[in-house]
Amino acid sequence: MAQYPLIGITFDTQAFNDYPWYALRKNYCTAIADAGGIPFPLTHDLRLTDKYISLINGLMITGGEHDVDPLLYGVRERHPTVNLKPHRTAFEMEIARAALKKNLPVFGICGGQQLINVVLGGTLIQHIPDEVPQPLEHVKTRHLPCHTIQVARETLLHQIVEKEEFSVNSGHHQAIKEVAPGVIINAVAPDGVIEGIESPAYRFCLGVQWHPEFIITPHDASIFQAFIEASRE
Length: 233
Fold this sequence. Notes:
The chain is of the alpha/beta class. Helix content is 28%, strand content 24%. It has a single domain (6-232), classed as Rossmann fold (3-Layer(aba) Sandwich), CATH 3.40.50. Strands 4-1-5-6-13-12-11-8-9 form a nine-stranded mixed β-sheet, sandwiched between helices. A two-stranded antiparallel sheet has the order 2-3. A two-stranded antiparallel sheet has the order 7-10. Helix 2 packs across helix 3. The termini are close together.
């Protein structure tokens, strides 16, 4: 058992002064550390995937200002709002598959949830306002609550938070459309947007559409604690 599990965290990428940079919001790391884990950011080097998997005890796939290529879930037409970061997505797809194959705990946040669903065989809504009738405004300030979610009973998420409804923050223009085979929807927003998924085929495979790393409620902290506890095993 790992007393302080090493948690692989995926980077985002940005351009700064005409050079490529890795980027990772500090609170992703702080939330892991506060829950008892050791944050371990992962570069997008496919040559290192196997080495990373041999080192880490759990994997967290973060959000970012990008989208999964629709071609990866069988859709040729790309919405004008879709922003691609192919190298990041290729790395996240590969390391997520490797982590799940090894049955390591995997936790996806926002775009990370969407990527997990695609990895497992699901599809995405490319732009919520175009596909969801009377949608909530899901693109909001991430450090404030903006809508509630309904949590399904008898799910891993419900077991963790012990609540059927609570408020979450939000910052996304895409969402899950069709869940992958064997994946369970564990939370939805009032407009029907899928806010959480999990797969009972793995010992811990959880995705949330909001940003719990901001810890706007005690339930967010509980999710990180459950992820770290699973990564100790």
